[in-house]
Fold this sequence. Notes:
The structure holds 3 protein chains of 3 kinds. By secondary structure, chain A is an all-alpha fold. Chain A has helices spanning 2-29, 31-53, 88-124, 126-140, 144-155, 159-186, 189-196, 201-238, 249-258, 265-292. In chain A, α3 runs parallel beside α10 (265-292), α7 (189-196) packs across α8 and α8 packs parallel to α9. Chain B has helices at residues 2-29, 34-39, 45-54, 61-73, 87-122, 127-141, 144-158, 170-175, 185-191, 195-232, 235-242, 247-258, 260-285, 290-300, 303-328. The mean pLDDT of chain B is 79. At the A-C interface, α1 of A face loops of C.
Amino acid sequence: MLNRRTNYYEILIKQKLKVLKENLYLFKKNKLTFAALIIILFLFIIAIIAPIIAPFPSHIHGAVNPKDKLLPPSKTYLFGTDELGRDLFSLVLYGTRISLSGAIIAVAAGFLIGVPLGLIAGFYSGFIDELIMRIVDMFLSFPPLLLAMVIAAFLGPSLQNAIIALIISWWPWYTRLIRGQIISIKEREFVRAALAIGTPSWQIMFKHMLPNCISPVIVQASLDLGGIILTLASLSFLGLGAQAPTPEWGLMINTSRTYFIKAWWYGVFPGIAMFISVLCFNLLGDGLREILDPKTKKN
Amino acid sequence: MFNMLVRRLLLGIITIFGVILITFILVRLVPSDPAAQWVGVKATTEQIIAAREELGLDKPIYVQFGYYIKDLLRGNLGYSIMTHQPIVEELKARFPATLELVLFSVIFSVLIGIPLGLISAKNKNSWIDHLSRFFSIGAISIPTFWLALVFQLIFFMILGILPSGGNLNMKIKLFQNVPHITGFIFLDSLITGNFVILIDFLKHLILPAICVGAYVIGLVARMTRSALLEILSEDYIKAARSYGLSERLILYSYALKNSLGPTVTAVTLALGYALMNTFLVESVFSWPGIGKYVADAVVCLDYPAILGVTILAAIAYILLNLIADIIISFDPRVKL
Amino acid sequence: MSNYFEIKDLKINFETFEEIKNVVNIKKLNLVKGETFGIVGESGSGKSVLAMSILRILPSPPAFIKSGKIMFKGKNLLELKEKEIQKIRGKEISMIFQDPMSTLNPVFTVGQQIMNVIRHNKHLNKEDAEKEALKMIKLVKLPDAKNTLYKYPNELSGGQRQRIIIAIALSCGAELLIADEPTRNLDVTIQAGILKLIDELKRELGITVLFITNNLNLVFIVSNRVAVLYKGKIVETGTSQEIKRQSNHPYTQKLLGITSVGEKLVI
């Protein structure tokens, strides 16, 4: 008896290892994606240890150095200083925290709201499906940034409200995506079989159906991380997100416009940081899509 | 076909109504007092009460909504708190500039993006493919407003060859008679043969257009590539090859027609994003369009203006999607 | 007498990231002009790979032709350049596939699809091509030829689609037809119709047919000579009579013991 069970687990483990090896190989084959992953890990580390590696951590909280304002990049101030005399390098480092955490919170919340709703809509169909999808359609009928802009404007400009606005704007995409997936696998036999033997609905939804259709949503989420960083920065740029003196990249770029002629370097560095972050998230998401896409496994 | 149109139109109208309702409620939920904003900071209490009456804010909320809808149907979007002008007039004045910018950007980007995706798909996994994929992902990763600033930096401040903003030189605007037939500077100057204005306009147009278009190029190229790759792996392509058809014929005649659906979807999506990017770019380049208007309205928290633009944008977006659906329905596979 | 069609020492590999697998290893296979030659094997035996390698439409990667010759009328097909093999495809050697729905382009009418091939291969103008297309549709015994031209693939039945595919394949005068499991996706009654059609066309047009299937019964009915394929290798060849009566290979004998191939055999 014991032998059979251990054999079963052996086979299971061997299978999982094989899948892992496959995925790692694909990952390594796509060197760009791998590099992007490394850089992202690097960014996360920077975000976490920012207070330690920033040369002037006190500047974040508004310690002002008026005589050092708007200095060009130098050995002391790697990226130069802003109009309050704060070290731009430290500010950009802290900005990593804000952008990354903001993006993760927004995507995670949107995901946690949108996916269950989509599951329910797809599974139960009928009236509740129509209701949820009408609401989703209404939200999706806005051009992407506009909805976030309007909500942020009405909630009052602040970083938190911007993130809330993003969550509200983003969740419908996940709902629609997952609902489409659910509908396409609802007719498959394993679902019918589970229903026939009386499995409770929520179990079918979460244990059986969800794992099968989660990959496109995961790909979308990882791609969205990049997009949300950009949108959050755009909101701050327009004055609807982070407010001074928060070191948010978009806000910094906006502030730099006033001092464009005197200190052109001001806005350049936060932008480069943002570009690299978003680029890496997009590369990662793209690579994940290649790996997880069942169609490319057709061979 | 007709049934589908009617159904979509109805759906669209309901959605627009929902949008108006939501935005209207949002405005009323705002803690600040619109009447106080209207009369300004230094107002007296009587002025505020008078304004409240004038604006109809003392009536119950559903009555206010009724008035609002009535006004909307008559084409009245209310008055801007910033400028105290009718919003419709302000939007009408700025609309052509935004439209010109968006149209140029999108056309130019699609003309670049689709061939890029095509070449990428045709030469899958070659160095051309990898390069263009990297470029596409880069294009959608760049923060548009930052790109705008960098462009200003390089081309205006350092090189001095392109203007820093506006859509026409101030001197031309003030001293020359800018023709105003269609409201579109490009067309008007072309029609009247005024090439000085035309060239000046193009000089002002190029940087903003590239900024708005960068994201679009990346998006369209990627979607074209993936659509084509999927099509090229289909059985009917394999069969077409077995009949001896040349690769060129297969790619341009067969595969392209099959990719109409996804391409139209991509371009529609791109237009939506382009519209949003335009808002940001107009701010940086002081392009006199709706985007700048909205950006300013947002800073002053001019809610009626924001509301007006939101409704306009939502309507435009819904119309766009409707047109896209109509085009897609020409695909014989789509069951109506 | 020089052989009409001969395969010699053909080795084809499938290369994935994990391993290199040999899927076809054929020492010798030849066709006589005018016969129907059947290749029978179960799924995974390499028959489709073999078929596609003749016209060189194998997706490469992951498939690679490692060595061998495919001689057709004295020319080695594997050595021809792309432009030259294009001249052979459709005009001298043609192919029909298993799934008629996916083999037709869904956004073009069947008339357009036939005409595209005819115009490209025979350089005819639109009117002449249409006449040719009508001729072909009538040849495959489809009623109401004129209206069929304007139908889309999803408006036709499975059997009708397969006839259209046969029409396209034979529209430009091909003399060797490779039929890769052409009736597998069709109902049994429709199957009979298609097989009869292929037989008639063979006699009317004088073509040679290479018939690939996994159905043992079918292959004996349709073919003059048969080769049995197992894991990429030919394990037995002979006329249908010979093999049916006394096959020499244990695999064939096992096959004969079951009515249709497709079950996993352990040898």
